[in-house]
Amino acid sequence: MRSNTKIWIEGTIIAALSIMLSFLPTGMGTTFSISLGQITLTVYALRRGVKPAMLAGLIWGFLHFPLGQVIYLSVAQVLIEYILAYPFAGFAGFFAARLHKSIQAENHGQARFAIISACLVGTFARYFWHFVAGYIFWGQYAMWGLSPVIYSLVINGTNALLTALAAIVILLIFEKVFPTVFIPKDQKSMSMH
């Protein structure tokens, strides 16, 4: 099988795993949750780079539709939160080359830095769009007497922070126990470094 085809198949499997993980209950009340799918997408981004990870994120976003996981207020809101936001999780892939070099050089400090950076960048890039949608579309439902912008910042900022922390913890464990998960056997990536 051609290497590029393997990369796209791997990305599709990652998207499917990401949506499956969304069915695990991680909610804290009605507003806060951890997006476990971010973990698998970040691993893929660190394996393959930005471009494949953004495509996998797009597929992850699209998979919400047939599974009835879309909360719909308007077409624009759905486009922002599912078609635009999820691909941005692939920005974690900007740290793929740094991580690969660090692992191969057995430089664990640099590897951990790349993982932490990737988790933060990928998660916050995605949640930026959830914040935008929250401000524009969900602001009318703001609780606790907060303005729409503050409410969206609190909700989406907290969810992003919880998601990033979960991804950091899991991926740092992977780096320590199973670092080769980040390095594909074919060593090919289609990143935009």
Automatic annotation (TrEMBL):
What Gene3D superfamilies does this protein map onto? 1.10.1760.20
Protein known as = Thiamine transporter ThiT
Q: Where are the transmembrane segments?
A: 7-24, 79-99, 111-129, 149-174
Keyword line: Membrane, Transmembrane, Transmembrane helix
List the Gene Ontology MF annotations in alphabetical order.
thiamine transmembrane transporter activity
Which GO cellular component terms are attached? plasma membrane
The encoding gene is thiT
Q: Which Pfam families match?
A: Thia_YuaJ
Q: Which residues form a coiled coil?
A: none
